[in-house]
Write a structure and sequence with these properties.
By secondary structure, the chain is an all-alpha fold. It has 5 helices and no strands.
Length: 79
């Protein structure tokens, strides 16, 4: 288990809420962040997500940390 997993699991993942956020936010940069969260939920691997989206592992960790501390609403705000 990686160090992100406990905080991510505590936050939980609600597919219906995720779908609502995807529908509500047409901006691609926000949708990419949402897809990262969903893919991590499915794979539990930062490396797999980074490879799939061609992003650095530090970027993936930053996205996941924001999600773990604020949920999807935090993930959908510009940074």
């Amino acid at each position: 288990m990686n160090s992100l997993q406990p905080a991510f699991d505590k936050q939980g993942f609600d597919l219906a809420q995720w779908k609502h956020a995807m529908h509500r936010h047409p901006q691609e940069y926000i949708r990419r962040k949402l897809r990262v969260v969903q893919t991590y939920h499915q794979t539990h691997s930062v490396q797999a997500v980074a490879s799939q989206y061609h992003l650095h592992k530090a970027t993936i960790r930053a996205y996941l940390n924001t999600y773990s501390h604020g949920g999807l609403s935090a993930r959908c705000t510009p940074q």
